[in-house]
Amino acid sequence: MSQTTIETTTEPTIRYNDxxxxxxxxxxxDSGDVLMMAWMNEAAVxxxxxxxxxxxxxxxxxxxxxxxESSGHVQEVQEMRLDCDQDTILLRVKAHGPACHAxxxxxxxxxxxxxxxxxxxxxxxxxxxxxxxxx
Amino acid sequence: MSQTTIETTTEPTIRYNDxxxxxxxxxxxDSGDVLMMAWMNEAAVxxxxxxxxxxxxxxxxxxxxxxxESSGHVQEVQEMRLDCDQDTILLRVKAHGPACHAxxxxxxxxxxxxxxxxxxxxxxxxxxxxxxxxx
Lengths: 135, 135
Description:
By secondary structure, chain A is of the alpha+beta class.
């Protein structure tokens, strides 16, 4: 399929990378906050479409995982958007709890300060990971 | 650096992939819209921090590019956030014009409809690419 066709087609034609994965950005539909980025394989894409629960593929654990399966912080998918190139996904979700295992609503809780060249924490911690992820 | 240290340090420690690249999500600070995703190498990260203009690395053209260098649609970087793992960047920008070369404000102009299994165009076209990218 040509580049122009990929941009205009109504047929989903995801271009997975050479590992069979595609990056998926997760955005909270209510606040507009960008919550996290994770990877999906084709099975995770299909599962997300069917269950409407954000489902990813873990490269380190080599398996599919449903967001919230340990924490209960599931992400209910309202929209699954594709970009012009069809090589990036944007999930617009109702977030049932914070997205970040480090205790923040969003994984993007640090800002790189160009003047100090350090990271400033710009979000509030909303839970203690030790309480949520019990061993 | 351990996983916990990466999550809590104030030291920027970007974990580039095996091609020396890191994905960068671009969000409009005013509307909250997710505009696009592109890749950065270390030079593009440094250039973005210094010039405050979103700068990426093109894998197909094998060179750095400043967003808006052809179209004039530059992205003025207000914040450059890192995620917990320090392997994804979120640029929060003032967008001087639409982000997508296909003519939309955001590259994510199509929604994958789970019922029809087709892509629905959910954004309005705001310019004709032929007028902006003259040969």
